[in-house]
């Protein structure tokens, strides 16, 4: 099946969760943000997909995955599809729903992380909401970060198949997404994460396990991996990392 991934060029956002799944699966894909022949061409193709008035199931926003005749949006939805078709989801129904449930928790976490630097919404620049961002980030680091990390630590400990992966005894797509969350948090909040990691050894062990997988390691070392920056989902503003 031919895959095409649509996202804004140069921005490491929700698309990275999809890229990790595609890379781990070892399937070929066209990354429109990089392979369209320049930023202008990429944005033109992206806007065509978003604005196509003839599409029976129009996407609201990117990322969008084109898989054959299917046009799939929403990160968790894309990952559920890729997992089922590329060996990154459990075989039994109950475990598939459990994996998807964990991915939806991660989706909630992503929103809260984004809102640390844009608490008033994406239509205003960060510079116009600094005071609100400081307050929102302080609450996030004190209350929400340990709550999410603690939850996934508990999920690993309570996995009947062992504490190496979130679901069963093999890697699934939520493991890849949790890896990306930790990578992003280390970039955005290095001071806060330095004080949190020792309290969540299982989550950090999973992060290390994913980073050492051959295809993931090769991807992280390649030019296909977009570096974190202050246009993306995870942003490092030193004044927020207190």
Topology (elements, then pairings):
Layout: E1 3-6, H1 15-25, E2 29-31, H2 32-35, H3 39-51, E3 64-67, E4 70-73, H4 75-85, H5 93-117, H6 130-157, H7 173-188, H8 190-194, H9 201-211, H10 214-220
Parallel strand pairs: 1-2
Antiparallel strand pairs: 1-3, 3-4
Helix pairs in contact: 1-4, 1-7, 1-10, 4-5, 5-6, 5-7, 7-9
Overall shape: it is globular
CATH topology (fold) name of the largest domain: Glutathione S-transferase Yfyf (Class Pi), Chain A, domain 2
Domains, number:
2
The CATH class of the largest domain: Mainly Alpha
Rg from C-alpha positions?
Answer: 18 Å
Termini, distance in Å?
Answer: 46 Å
Describe the main β-sheet briefly: 4 strands, mixed
Helix content: 40-55%
The low-confidence runs, each spanning 5 or more residues with pLDDT under 50, are none
Pattern of helices and strands: EHEHHEEHHHHHHH
CATH hierarchy: architecture of the largest domain: Up-down Bundle
Global structural class: alpha+beta
The number of helical elements comes to: 10
As laid out across the biggest beta sheet, the strand order is 2-1-3-4
Q: In what range is the share of β-strand residues?
A: 5-15%
Mean pLDDT: 96
Work out the number of β strands.
Answer: 4
Written overview of the protein:
It is a single chain. The mean pLDDT is 96. The protein has 2 domains: 3-85, Glutaredoxin (3-Layer(aba) Sandwich), CATH 3.40.30.10; 93-240, Glutathione S-transferase Yfyf (Class Pi), Chain A, domain 2 (Up-down Bundle), CATH 1.20.1050. It has 242 residues and is an alpha+beta fold. The chain has 10 helices and 4 strands, in the order βαβααββααααααα. Helices cover 54% and strands 6% of the residues. The protein is globular. The longest helix is centred in the middle third of the chain and has 28 residues, at 130-157.
């Amino acid at each position: 099946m031919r895959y095409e991934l649509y996202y804004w060029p140069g921005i490491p956002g929700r698309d990275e969760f999809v890229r990790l799944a595609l890379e781990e699966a070892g399937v070929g894909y066209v990354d429109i943000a990089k392979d369209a022949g320049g930023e202008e061409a990429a944005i033109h193709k992206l806007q065509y997909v978003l604005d196509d008035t003839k599409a029976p199931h129009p996407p609201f926003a990117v990322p969008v995955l084109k898989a054959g005749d299917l046009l799939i949006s929403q990160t968790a939805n894309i990952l559920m599809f890729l997992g089922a078709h590329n060996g990154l989801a459990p075989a039994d129904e109950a475990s598939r729903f459990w994996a998807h449930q964990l991915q939806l928790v991660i989706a909630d976490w992503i929103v809260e992380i984004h809102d640390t630097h844009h608490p008033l919404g994406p239509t205003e620049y960060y510079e116009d909401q600094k005071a609100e961002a400081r307050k929102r980030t302080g609450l996030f680091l004190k209350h929400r970060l340990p709550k999410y990390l603690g939850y996934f630590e508990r999920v690993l400990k309570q996995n009947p198949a062992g504490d190496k992966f979130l679901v069963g005894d093999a890697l699934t797509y939520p493991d890849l997404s949790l890896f990306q969350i930790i990578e992003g948090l280390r970039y955005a909040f290095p001071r806060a994460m330095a004080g949190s990691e020792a309290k969540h050894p299982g989550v950090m062990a999973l992060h290390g396990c994913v980073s050492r997988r051959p295809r993931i390691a090769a991807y992280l070392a390649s030019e296909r991996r977009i570096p974190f920056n202050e246009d993306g989902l995870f942003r490092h503003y030193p004044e927020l990392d207190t």
